[in-house]
Amino acid sequence: MKRLIDKLRHDHSLTGEEYASLLSCQDTDTLLYLQQQAREVALAYFGNAIFIRGLIEVSNRCRNNCYYCGIRKGNTAVTRYALSRKSILECCREGYALGFRTFVMQGGEDPALTDEWIEATVAAIRNEYPDCAITLSLGEKSREAYGRFFRAGANRYLLRHETHNEQHYRKLHPGDMSLKHRLQCLQALKEIGYQTGTGIMVGSPGQTLTHLVEDLLFIEQFRPQMIGIGPFIPHHDTPFGTEPAGSAEMTLKLLSLFRLMHPSA
Ligand code: SF4
């Protein structure tokens, strides 16, 4: 097992079978070794520092109905809101004064946030804060819209694929959403020139070790600049409200594997 960890650190690549053996490994010494290697790499690339992002939740409205999500369209128990451009710029102003140099506009796929509105809001932030990174996390848009946001000054886009397995994707999302389209969006973002982020939920309902291996192989070849992973946490007002939460141990193991796979992500 330690040989596989060394190989991943050195080559940044493993076969599916090799990822599977590491994912199923429960040996404490091996897992400590994996953590230790990942920590060494993180310290070498980033130092002992915490990078803080100014995350602005711009809207909790969404046209989609992902089965795991607390702000899915079908949840009538949520009080919905969307921030005005003025409020977003006030957040940036306050954040900048506090030392934030990355602003993230994150929200559901709110039909009221038109492409024109997003483009103009990005341009307003870019105009006031030329020295800051602007990250968007606003879901699936057309390639043309992604291009417009980029030209208006956005640098980064987060769009987690959540699972790279078609059947598993179908278990997590209603029929009007498609994994193929999600992956096309990710490809478009990369081609436009965004620093692109993807990622997964760990322990989402129906997820198997084989699905995780598929995610590892996809992320290995896609080479995203950002990888967002976290455990599935059941939300009581969703169809998955009584499902068990994802495991913290598996999440940490995956974080270590991704650190060795893409050291600078
Ligand atoms: S697209 Fe995002 S915000 Fe909308 S329901 Fe799905 S996970 Fe939630």
Structural class estimated from helices and strands: alpha/beta
The CATH homologous superfamily name equals: Aldolase class I
Distance between the termini: 24 Å
Q: What percent of the residues sit in helical stretches (DSSP H or I)?
A: 40-55%
Mind telling me the CATH class?
Alpha Beta
Beta strand count = 6
- Uncertain runs: none
Q: Reading side by side through the largest sheet, how are the strands ordered?
A: 1-2-3-4-5-6
Strand count, sense and closure of the main sheet? 6 strands, parallel
Task: Indicate the overall shape.
Answer: globular
Count up the domains: 1
Considering the chains and any ligands shown, give keywords for the structure.
265 residues; alpha/beta; TIM Barrel; six-stranded parallel β-sheet; 10 helices; 47% helix; globular; binds iron/sulfur cluster
Walk me through this protein's architecture.
By secondary structure, this protein is α/β, with parallel strands linked by helices. The chain has one domain: Alpha-Beta Barrel (TIM Barrel), CATH 3.20.20. Helix content is 47%, strand content 13%. The protein has 10 helices and 6 strands. A 6-stranded parallel β-sheet has the order 1-2-3-4-5-6. β2, α5 and β3 form a beta-alpha-beta unit. The longest helix has 19 residues. The structure holds iron/sulfur cluster. The site of iron/sulfur cluster has 9 residues, from loops.
Write the layout of secondary structure elements.
Blueprint: H1 2-11, H2 16-24, H3 28-46, E1 54-59, H4 85-98, E2 102-107, H5 115-128, E3 133-137, H6 143-152, E4 156-158, H7 166-172, H8 179-192, E5 195-202, H9 209-222, E6 226-231, H10 248-261
Parallel strand pairs: 1-2, 2-3, 3-4, 4-5, 5-6
